[in-house]
Structure formats: structure tokens, C-alpha cells
Amino acid sequence: MVSQKASSAASLPLLFDIEDFKGNFSFDALFGNLVNELLTEFKDDDSDSVDGVGGQDVLPNGNLRGLQGSSPPMFPAVDELLAVFKDSCKELVDLRRQIDARLQNLKKEVAIQDAKHRKTLTELEKGVDGLFDSFARLDSRISSVGQTAAKIGDHLQSADSQRETANQTIELIKYLMEFNSSPGDLMELSPLFSDDSRVAEAASIAQKLRAFAEEDVGKQGMSSAVGAATPSRGLEVAAANLQDYCNELENRLLARFDTASQRRELSIMAECAKILSQFNRGTSAMQHYVASRPMFIDVEVMNADIKLVLGDQGLQAGSSNISRGLSTLYKEITETVRKEVATILAVFPSPNDVMSILVQRVLEQRVTAILDRLLVKPSLVNLPPVEQGGLLLYLRIFAVSYEKTQELAKELQSVGCGDLDVEGLTESLFLGHKDDYPEHEQASLRQLYQSKMEELRAEAQQQSESTGTISRSRTALNPSTQQQISVTIVTEFVRWNEEAISRCTLFSSQPATLATNVRLVFTCLLDQISQYLTEGLERARESLNEAAALRDRFVIGTSVSRRVAAAAASAAEAAAAAGESSIRSFMIAVQRCASSVAILQQYFSNTISRLLLPVDGAHAASCEEMGTAVSSVEGAAHKGLLQCIDTVMAEVERLLSSEQKTTDYRSPDDGNPPDHRPTNACVRVVAYLSRVLEVAFTALEGLNKQSFLTELGNRLHKGLLNHWQKFTFNPSGGLRLKRDITEYGEFVRSFNAPSIDEKFELLGIMANVFIVAPESLASLFEGTPSIRKDALRFIQLRDDYKTAKIASRLNSILSES
User: How far apart are CA 547 and CA 578, in angstroms?
Assistant: First the structure.
């Protein structure tokens, strides 16, 4: 929009227009429109002049400086541009003033329009408020009209209902008058009461009329009771006739129901059941349907049940076979009930009530019938023989029957039984047996124990008879012919008890009852094991007593012939063998007792303890009872172990007496070197002890082993001291004695008893009183003062006691100390 060149700004046309600043305004475009024409002309001139000039310098103001003289300016349009720029500024200022003036005018117009708009809004708000008030009044009016209409509708509905009720009442009064006409006359009734197609309507009306008539009769009776002078004639006839009609109608419907049931016409059955539900809530129909089921009326079904469970052997079939039979029978019963569910759901309006009656009838009739054959409670006075199963057979059948019947109850409950308490009803079937269960369980355990003991005695007697008639001495020589304690038998006792505990858990739902029954049953086990082990130990002690009797029988004096002495020695050897065999037998019995007690304690810990803990005091009481039972066994074992020690020491004394020579400890001075070997008596005694105690080391454990070996070590120490006091010793004999003491000490070291080891070590030191010279005795006593008491007693056994005047030396030693 730039015009052609002009000499002055006044002659130039307008450079700008307001429209140029509207829309997408661009300053670059505006500026280009002002100067493009001038710049284009300048570019053309400049390009020509630059091409023709060489080696010229360009000055900072844009002029070129030549090498020779000066030339005219290269940008002659500068003045025109300056003029354009000045004109542009003036026009821009004018445009700004125009725009400011227009803006002022617009502000005034906007203020005027805003005032008008506010006035209009105020008027509109007043109009809207008026409309709202009008709408509120209209809504209130509409609501009032609606309420009035609703009241009118209620009145109309009430009037219609009253009209309908009045019509029904008129009809009922007419029907009631028909029933109240004459007693027993049902022939003149309306066709409604004889029309089979309207039975439901007739039943409903008859029930209403009967309820009204019976209520009226009841009021008449009350009036008569308070002394009314002239009671009016009531509806007694109507009540009686209605009762007869309802009974006749109910029987007619039941007959139709039976016919439809035989034909499996479920729709007719459902129709009859629905109508019959108006009579005593349909109880007669439900009971009639349940009672007509084949499983309740067919004798063959009941016989088949008994045949299935008991078979041909009856109760002797065993609990396992009976369990399988009950499972099969109860499965059939469940399937039968499940099939009935479909019919009951399709026919009866209250199927839960029918299922309740059906399940109750199943339990009370069909299940009870088979239980009566299975559970014949035995007498506790005359117990059934063990050969026929005894009490255990009854208890096992009882447990199986109870468990399977409980499973049947759960299955029936899952099928559906209405509001019937199936669990309670099932429990009631066994109450007579559960009340006496603890007594029967205890009696059964006692019967089993007695039977087992008789069996064991019979086996022992048979074994004895098979070997022929033997003397008591032969019996003593062979204790194995006697009845031995068996861990297998004790395990069988525990198995009986474990089975009984499982029944206690099955029959006892309450923790207190369970704990009481478990404690009673466990007490039976304690009595059985205690009695069995104690009697077994007593039998083993009898062998020790017989061996002792044999030993005492062949004790002879000194003045006998050589032949008699040889016979006595042979008999003594036999008695010693019997004693050794009896010791071995008793040790094995003690070992088996320990194993049996361990089994008992393990059983208590794993099975019994957790069942007693819920009841305060039950666990502690059972622990005390178990401790008492174990103590009685330990007492018998302790007595037997002491007898074993007596037997061992008796044989040790016999060996020492027969094998020890006087020359063993007083060898002659023949010039031969001293014998450093242990004496023959010592060798025999150690060999005997090693042999006879071998079984003790393996059979005894813990404190039993420790106390036994300690007591034996003390007795051996005492016996050796008494034995050596019978001899006199010279120095070489003292050396041999010390060798014997070393041999004994090495043997008793296997006892692992420090007190015994110490005693034999002191014996070795004490033997020095026979070896040292008389003048060295003082230093011996000073070095080991603990041996002084025994040493003073044994020093008198020195062969030089008198010749060396050791007595006076001892007195001086004692006086100095």
C-alpha cells in the first residue's frame, strides 16, 4: 500500500488504514509494504554499481570509497524512506486518536446498555418470583385434590370391600343355616358341597363355617357356666354337621389322593394336598402319605434289611461284616428318601414338613428295627462267653451301629428334613446303651485280661505236660519252662485300651464326659499292666528262691567222706548253674518290664494326655495313678534284684571258699621267683561275674543299673574283706593279694561307680601292709591315713605279726598320732 515517490509528505496518499490492523496482523508484512518498492529499485542499482567497481572500500555509512576521488552516494532513496517513515508515524498517531475516540463512544454505549440490561433483569426476577408463588399455590391445590381423591378412593374401596364381605357373609349365613337345620342331615345342602369340581371352595367355606360355629358354641358354654337363665339356641347342630362334613370331605380327598398316588398322577395329588392343607394344616395328608410308603408297611423290606446286615450268621458275623451291611442298608435308605423328595416337592405345599415326618419315621421305625436286632445289651452279672465274642463283640457292634447311624443322619439332613432335629433324634436311639457304656467297657477289658491270663496259663501247662513230669529242681534248672513276661502281651493290652479309648471318643461329645470315661478306661490298663508285670516278676523271683533252696540243701559240714563231698560239690555246681540261669531269666524280665513301662508312658503321652487336659485335675490324677502302678512294678523288681545280688554273692563265696588255697598268700621260701599271676579263685570269681553280669549290663538301664551295680560292688567289697581275714600273708603273698585286688578293681571299673572304684583302690593300698617291712609301717600310715581302720585289722594277718613284734610298733605309731 505504499504509493509512488513524492517530493513532500503532503503530496503522499494515505499509507495506513484501520482495516490493515484487523485479522492476523503482521508487522513484517506491514513494513514490507512500505519499503519494498524503494528497496527493489535500490537493489537493482546497487548490483550494477558493485559489478563495475573493483577494489573499492565500503564505508561505514554504506558509501564506497574509491581509490581515486569521490563518487555520488550509492543509496539515494534514504530521503524518501525517511519521509515515508515520518508520514507513517503521523498516520499511526492519527489512527490511535480515532480508535481512542471510538473506544470512548463504545464505553458510553456499553454503560447505557448495561443499565438497561440490569433494569430488565430486575423486572424478570420479579416476574419469576411471581411464577414460583403461582406454581406453589397450584402444587398445594393439586396435592389437596389428590388427597381428596385418595380418600374418595379409599372410601369407595372400603365400601366395595364391605359390600363384598356382606355378600360373602350372606352366603355364609345361608350355608350355615343349611348345616344348622337338623342333626346329621347332610342331604339338603347346596350343590356346592357335593360338586367334586368345587371341592376346594367347599373345603374353604366349610372350614370358615366350622370355626364360626365352634366359636359360637364356646361362647354359649361360657354363658351357661356363669349362670345365664335362658340360654338361646346356638349352633351346636351346625358345628356337629360341619365336623361330620369336614371328616367326610377329608376322607374323600384322602381316597382320591391314594388313587392318584397309585397312578403317579402328581397334579391330582398336588391338588388334593393343597385342599387337605386346610384341614389341620394338612397333617393328615402328610402322615397318610408317609405311612403308605412301602418301606414302612412291607414286611419283606424289614426282613431284607435284617438279612442284609446280619446275613446267615447273625451277630457272630462280626463287626466288620455288620459295618459293611449297615453301610449298604443306609445307602439304600438314603437313596429311597432322595427319590421321595422329588414327589414331595411336586405334591405338597409344605414339603419341609413332609420331609420332617418322613425322616422321623425312617429313624424311629426302620432304623430302630435293625438296631433292636443288633444291640442286645448283655448282663454284667452273667457275661457272654469270650468264645462267642464276649462283651467286646457287643461294644464293637455298638460303635459300628452308632457311627454308621450318625453318618446316615448327616446324609438325611443333607437331603432335607425340615425342622427336625436329626442329631437329637439319632442320639435318643442310643441313650439306653450310652448310659451304661462305661461299665460295659471296663467289664470288657477285665474279661479280655482274664481270658488272656487263662490262655497263657493253659499254654504254660501244656508246655509243661509236653515235657513230661519234672521235679521242682528241674524246673529251677530251666526257668524258661515258666511263663515269661512278654512285651507283645503288654502291647496287646495297650491295643485293647486304645480301641476302648476310640469308642469313648465316639460316644462322648462333651469334654468332661470324655475325660471321665477315658480316665476309667486308662485305669483299667494301669491295673492290667501293673498286675501282669508284678506277677511276672514274682514268678521270676520264684526261680531265684528255688535256686537258693537248692543251694542251701547241699551245704555240708567238714567231717564227711570224700565221696559225699564230691557229690555235694557236684550238686552245688548244679545249684550254681540254676542260680545263674535264674538271674539271667530275672534280668530279662526286668528288661521287658522297662520296655513295657516305656510303652505305657508313650501311650499316655500320645493318646491319653490330650484327652484329659480340658478337665481340671484329671491329668494330674491319672499321672499319680500311673506313678503308683509303676512303683508297684519297681518294688517287685527291686526285691528281685536284691535276690540276684544274694545269689551272685553266694556263688562268689562258694568259689572263694572252694578255690582259694592257704598257700596262695603264704608261699614257701623255696627260692623260686614269686608268682605274679592272680590266684585261681580270683580268676574263677571274675570269670563268673563277667558271665553272669553280661545280661545285667544289657537288661538294666538308668538308675536301675546304677543302683544294682553299686550295691553289688559294695557287697563284693565286703565279701572279699571277710574272705581274706581267713588267711595269713607273707610279703610274696601280699604281692599276690595285690594282684588279685588289681584284677577285681579292673572288673568293677566296668560298673561306672566312682565310689566302688575308690574302695578297691584303697584295698590295693591296704595290701601294702603285708609287703612293707615292719619299720616302714609308720610311713605307710602317714601317707594314706584313710586306710588306718582296715589296715589295723588286717595287719594282724601278717605271718610275722608276733615275731616282728608289730603290735608294739602299732601302739607306738598310734600313740604318736
Answer: 6
